[in-house]
Amino acid sequence: MSVIVLVLVGVLVLVVGGCVCVVWASRGGPRWVRGVAAVTLAVGELVRKSGRSGRGSSSNSNSDSGSSE
Question: Which residues contact 37 (CB under 8 A, 6 or more apart)?
C-alpha cells in the first residue's frame, strides 16, 4: 500500500508544480517555466477531452459549443 501512496503523492507534486509553473509563466517567468506550463496545459486539455468522451452526451454543462459573440 505504501507504493500506491508514494505514486499518488508523486502525481500530486507534479500537478501542483505544473499549476505553479502556469501561474509563474503568466507573469513572465523564464523560458523553462513557459515550457513546463505549455506541457501542463496540453496534458490538462487531453485529460479534459478524455473525460468528456468517456461520459457520453448526458452532460448539459458543455459551454464550448455555445456562441458567446
Answer: 18, 21, 22, 24, 25, 26, 29
